[in-house]
User: Fold this.
Amino acid sequence: MRLRTALLAIVLAVTSAGLATTPASAATAVPTISAPASTAGYQTVAITGTAAPGATVELYESAYKFHALQPALNWEDGSNAPITTQAAANGTYRMTRWVDTGFEFAVIADGRMSRTVVVYNRVVPVLTVTSSKIGTVTAKIVVTPAQPWLAVRIQRKNTNGTWTVVARGYTLDHGVYSAVIKQTSHKTYTYRAWISGDTTSGLLAAYSKPHAIRIK
Assistant:
């Protein structure tokens, strides 16, 4: 009887110890994080994941080119306070953040930092074409995000479906590029623009929508 009582006491002690340490282990679990692999233009992205229920989750971020995570600050309301949220009862959380280039994100909860996720940004080129002078067409590109020094190729569609580069250059400070192209009068041509990405900034290349115009 004494042996059985002693063994039962040991089992209860081990079980109690296990139960006591379980919440502490859960509280210090590494938080998870998810974000879209890419977005396009200047807009918000959703950052989601899990942490211990009720834990304060703080967002860290870095522009892709710097690779230096810092606390994300709330510039939208002017407070510049760190961006935080509280994990729900089931441990999930959600935050949104504006991006204007490639970005890296991570979160900290209960002193533990998540893995880092990267959100690449595909440029959005908007092409306009006009013909106000005889035998010429003016092609103008406005790129979002407004990044300078992105390579631009203005292309004209051929009758066989291929495309020929008719102008090239780089975006200026506000992501703008324009070119005047000589063409045959009274003919209709279709144009599009290709904008390069920037691997150092996490920007992805893109084509504009094609536009047709009759040359004056």
Observations:
- The CA atoms of residues 56 and 86 lie 5 Å apart.
- The radius of gyration is 28 Å.
- The chain is about 10% helix and 45% strand.
